[in-house]
């Protein structure tokens, strides 16, 4: 079917659309000027006038950025026998004096622009029919192009949606993640708008847009249309795998119209919750997997890390704490003389048995704020009830109880800090066995130390594989969630990127820390570089998030056909990506550079050559991807001798600001570049016999949008040769 004509000089409605754009811009400017005119924002008194004026200025500030691009599409709909055209933009606008209004992309009506559905059944009013969908490219208040995506009068689907998509995909990468509001595809739109209040796992191959969709879903969750499920931006959190990617992605949320969302890493969130922001977090299992050639030791480290993240560890921790706190209660009681105004002093007495019963009730209630706060609240509530304290006297009674309660709780919960208690548990066969959930073999595995050869920092540190157990101790003792002042409350919504790298135990903890049904997990089991931390299947995640739906994005949009086919060939070796389809976007052939294994300078001249050829092809944001951080540091220095100056990104403290960079695959993951060059793309670097190594190679080869180079001193890896 032919694509609808989209060139400005030939589309029959181009002039009409130009006029409508001009009038819409004028209407917006009039509205902004009205809001900014303080003299018009008058109330019954000075205070009301000030409030109205401040609100009007806020409305003006929200609308002003959208004057340059009021909308990007339109819908012609027929409802109750009448046709009307609705314009769709990033920000809703109502023209109170004319027909130049805009509906927001994340509204119920805005969804119609992205879907393939032709029927429309609003929550209120009559059903309607979509007559036309139209893309409008607007820049700096000027209409550049009109493309019909669907036109009922001209054969229906025009193929225009694919044309617009391909046009966007031809653009170069940027130094930050871009929004896809204008080009959401139907399957992406459906995943983004999965029912609010339902946990969602979005599985998608590299370049399928899952991370971007997660950010858009979070924006969608803040829309008033979500009702009781609406999320407040300041009460939401996005967890990204590292700080490089967090900085790369963070700017997209303000572009989508929401501010104050916490965008951080699991490690930063965990250490912040533990009150140990200066604690150094290591990943010694990853270090061993990347450097140790002893497969037995690697397998042992992998298995121990998986076990530390097993969801059963939540009850292992709970059972351990139950035993510890009951032991702390032995011989304890509370006896305090309490004065209530107008009465004689009364002795308040709680026996050991009564306190033990309260602790049992607290464990059963499993309060969000943790057992210590729950125990304090239980004793306070029972004291007020026994003494029959009038409401006005409650504060005074609680003040009298404060000191003895604090002393008592200190004795029972003494020395229960998350780090020390987690390590105490993990070092005790008796404590690990108490729950009856772990086998003898698993207990012995937890007591071994396959990482003994990997150095630890001299300063206070914790390993990422230990953190979930430490968080479990924190959740049960001090609580887990979002701290609002001094109050702990659940997050409104949490988005998890690279969800295949989160342990089932961490999912269980995040489920406690978040409103039920308000987790969006984004991942790809094919890219499980940190599989020692992650689930073996999405079913393991669903077990921790009741009712969770798994939605699969079947297309990848990032790369050209040539790059996508190469990635699929690698991923097919572990049998999960064979069905992935790329957009039919043709590009340059994958470039292969091979030097003799004994070449004087190895692969250095070839990497420099690949960089220059990528630059000559017009690419600016280029990545040289290495397997390890030390490789990136070494190459960055050596390449200067070949007139190639690449900015090394070897730690999470570095930021990707565009240009030519060199970085290890674990930091490249999640980023995309106009061109990418895989260094040392051979079987010596990426062991062909190990699935983990093939995963690393897949991630390395799937970073490029338009141009991919593979470099090796000696033969290329068999999967990409």
From TrEMBL:
The keyword Hydrolase applies. Keywords: ATP-binding, Helicase, Hydrolase, Nucleotide-binding. InterPro entries: DNA_helicase_UvrD/REP (IPR000212), P-loop_NTPase (IPR027417), UvrD-like_ATP-bd (IPR014016), UvrD-like_helicase_C (IPR027785). Pfam families: UvrD_C_2. It comes from the Bacteria. The lineage of its organism: Bacteria, Thermotogati, Deinococcota, Deinococci, Deinococcales. It comes from Deinococcus depolymerans. PROSITE patterns: UVRD_HELICASE_ATP_BIND (PS51198). This is ATP-binding domain-containing protein. Residues 183-560 form the UvrD-like helicase ATP-binding domain. One of its GO terms (molecular function) is ATP binding. The keyword Transport does not apply. ATP binds at residues 204-211.
């Amino acid at each position: 079917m032919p694509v609808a004509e989209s060139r400005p000089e030939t589309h029959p409605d181009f002039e009409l659309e130009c006029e409508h754009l001009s009038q819409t811009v004028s209407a917006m400017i009039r509205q902004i000027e009205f809001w900014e005119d303080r003299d018009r924002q008058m109330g019954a008194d000075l205070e009301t006038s000030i409030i109205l004026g401040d609100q009007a200025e806020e409305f003006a500030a929200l609308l002003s950025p959208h004057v340059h691009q009021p909308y990007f599409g339109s819908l012609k709909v027929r409802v109750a026998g009448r046709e009307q055209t609705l314009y769709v933009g990033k920000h809703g606008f109502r023209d109170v004096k004319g027909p130049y209004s805009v509906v927001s992309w994340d509204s119920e009506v805005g969804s119609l622009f992205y879907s393939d559905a032709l029927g429309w059944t609003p929550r209120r009013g009559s059903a309607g029919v979509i007559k036309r969908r139209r893309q409008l490219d607007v820049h700096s208040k000027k209409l550049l192009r009109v493309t019909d995506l669907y036109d009922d009068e001209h054969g229906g689907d025009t193929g225009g949606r694919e044309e617009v998509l391909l046009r966007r995909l031809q653009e170069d990468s940027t130094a930050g993640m871009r929004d896809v509001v204008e080009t959401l595809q139907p399957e992406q739109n459906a995943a983004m708008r999965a029912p609010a209040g339902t946990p969602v796992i979005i599985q998608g191959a590299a370049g399928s847009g899952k991370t971007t969709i997660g950010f858009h879903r979070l924006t969608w969750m803040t829309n008033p249309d979500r009702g009781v499920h609406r999320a407040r931006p300041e009460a939401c959190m996005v967890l990204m795998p590292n700080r490089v990617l967090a900085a790369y992605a963070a700017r997209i949320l303000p572009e989508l119209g929401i501010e104050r969302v916490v965008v951080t890493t699991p490690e930063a969130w965990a250490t912040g919750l533990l009150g140990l922001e200066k604690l150094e977090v290591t990943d010694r299992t990853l270090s061993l997997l990347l450097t140790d050639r002893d497969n037995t030791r690697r397998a042992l480290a992998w298995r121990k890390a998986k076990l530390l993240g097993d969801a059963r560890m939540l009850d292992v921790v709970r059972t351990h704490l139950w035993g510890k706190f009951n032991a702390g209660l032995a011989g304890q009681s509370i006896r305090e003389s309490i004065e209530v105004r107008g009465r004689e002093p009364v002795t308040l007495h709680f026996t050991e048995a009564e306190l033990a019963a309260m602790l049992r009730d607290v464990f059963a209630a499993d309060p969000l704020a943790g057992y210590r706060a729950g125990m304090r609240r239980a004793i306070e509530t029972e004291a007020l009830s026994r003494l029959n304290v009038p409401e006005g006297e409650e504060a005074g009674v609680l003040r009298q109880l404060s000191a003895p309660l604090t002393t008592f709780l200190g004795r029972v919960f003494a020395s229960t800090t998350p780090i020390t208690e987690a390590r105490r548990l993990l070092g005790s066969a008796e404590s690990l066995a108490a729950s009856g959930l772990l086998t003898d073999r698993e207990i012995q595995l937890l007591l071994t130390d396959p990482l003994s050869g990997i150095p630890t920092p001299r300063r206070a540190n914790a390993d990422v594989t230990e953190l979930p157990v430490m968080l479990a101790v924190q959740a049960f003792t001090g609580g887990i969630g979002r701290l609002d002042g001094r109050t702990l409350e659940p997050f409104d919504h949490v988005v998890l990127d690279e969800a295949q790298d989160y342990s089932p135990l961490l999912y269980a903890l995040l489920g406690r820390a978040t409103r039920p049904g308000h987790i969006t997990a984004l991942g790809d089991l094919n890219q499980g570089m940190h599989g020692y931390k992650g689930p073996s299947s999405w079913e393991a995640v669903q077990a921790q998030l009741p009712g969770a739906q798994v939605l699969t994005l079947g297309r990848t949009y990032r790369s050209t056909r040539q790059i996508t086919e190469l990635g699929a060939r690698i991923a097919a070796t572990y049998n999960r990506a064979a069905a992935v389809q790329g957009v039919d976007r043709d590009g340059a052939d994958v470039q292969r550079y091979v030097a003799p294994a004994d070449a004087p300078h190895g692969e250095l001249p070839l990497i420099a050559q690949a960089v220059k050829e990528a630059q000559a092809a017009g690419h600016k944001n280029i990545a040289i991807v290495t397997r390890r951080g030390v490789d990136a540091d070494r190459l960055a220095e050596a390449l200067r001798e070949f007139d190639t100056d690449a900015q090394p990104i070897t730690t999470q403290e570095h930021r990707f600001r565009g240009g030519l960079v060199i970085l290890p695959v674990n930091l490249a993951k999640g980023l995309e570049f106009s061109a990418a060059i895989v260094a040392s793309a051979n079987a010596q670097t990426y062991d062909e016999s190990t699935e983990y190594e093939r995963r690393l190679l897949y991630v390395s080869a799937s970073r490029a949008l338009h141009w991919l180079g593979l470099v090796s001193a000696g033969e290329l890896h068999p999967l990409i040769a």
